[in-house]
Amino acid sequence: MIGKIYRIGIAVNKLDEAIRRFSKVFDLSVAERRVNEAQAVEWAWLPSDVIVELIQATAPESKVSQFLKKRGEGLFLIGIEVSDLEAAMKELKERNVELVFDAPRPFPGGRKHNFIHPKSLHGVLVELVEPARSEQSSGTNQV
Hints:
The chain is an alpha+beta fold.
């Protein structure tokens, strides 16, 4: 069920500052930057072999804001590719693993995703990402 690590999400207090630091230390460039109003976050993707995603809260009630208050800056999520998200979700439910959503959600680039609740994995939020059809057929991991 588990594929390669797709992205590593890092919660940060100041996105621009974090972008400068990660760019300098790892010689990475921002490939995409967006605001997700539904989740009250702004994020930037810095791709390498995996995507380094820097995530800043845009509202005090967001999950990222709550995370930062409780734990401070740091690892927020690990994204893992799965070839068939619905089959993976079914298998996880059969193993009594709690998922965040009942159904897959859309994800940038035509992908679908869902999350394993941190309660099920010792406090680690794990994202399951199904590549877009074009990525599945070509084997690429495009941003």
